[in-house]
UniProtKB/TrEMBL annotation:
Pfam families: KRAB. InterPro entries: KRAB, KRAB_dom_sf, Krueppel_C2H2_ZnF. This is KRAB domain-containing protein. GO terms for biological process: regulation of DNA-templated transcription. It comes from Cervus elaphus hippelaphus (European red deer). Residues 1-72 form the KRAB domain.
Length: 72
């Protein structure tokens, strides 16, 4: 099992349709899923979406962050 098997990705448009409660639930569940995978040894690297969530950024910013890294 990998993180992508238990994760959900939103586009910017989809994210903007969520209310604050749904956004908070998403963040909590994604962070908990990753933590659970780490605790049983099924994840060795941190997915970009987890790094963004930990920084308080929106999850749809993954493409922007990856592109910025490639173009630097």
């Amino acid at each position: 099992m990998m993180f992508r098997d238990v994760s959900v990705n939103f586009s910017q448009e989809e994210w903007e349709c969520l209310d604050s409660g749904q956004m908070n639930l998403y963040k909590e569940v994604m962070l908990e899923n990753f933590s659970n995978l780490v605790s049983v040894g099924l994840s060795s690297s941190k997915p970009a979406v987890i790094s963004l969530l930990e920084q308080g950024k929106e999850p749809w910013m993954i493409d922007r962050e990856l592109t910025r890294g490639l173009c630097s």
